[in-house]
Amino acid sequence: MYAVTQTAAGGPDTLTWDQVPDPTPPGPDEVLVKVAAAGVNRADLLQRQGHYPPPAGASTTIGLECSGTIAAVGDKVTDQQIGEPCVALLSGGGYAEYAVVPAGQVIPPPEGVDLVSAGGLLEVAATVLSMTELAQLAAGETFLVHGGAGGIGSFAIQYGVALGARVITTAGSAEKLAYCRELGAATAIDYHTDWVEAVKAEGGADVILDVVGAKYLRSNLEVLRADGRLAIIGFQGGTKGEIDLGALLAKRGSVIAASLRSRPVEQKAAICEAVRETVWPLVSAGRITIPAETRMPITEVVEAHRRLESGDNTGKIILTVD
Question: Which InterPro entries does the entry link to (predicted)?
Answer without folding.
Answer: ADH-like_C, ADH-like_N, ER, GroES-like_sf, NAD(P)-bd_dom_sf, Quinone_OxRdtase_PIG3
